[in-house]
Amino acid sequence: MGTARKYVPSPEGLDLEFFQRAVETGVLHVQRCADCRACSHPPVHYCPRCFSPNREFVPSGQTGFVYSFTVTRRALEPAWADETPYVTVVAELDEGPRVIGAGRGFDPALIDLDQRVRLSVEAKSDDFAFIWIEPDDGTRQEDERGR
Question: Any residues with CB less than 8 A from the CB of 71 and at least 6 apart, and which?
Answer without folding.
Answer: 85, 86, 87, 108, 111
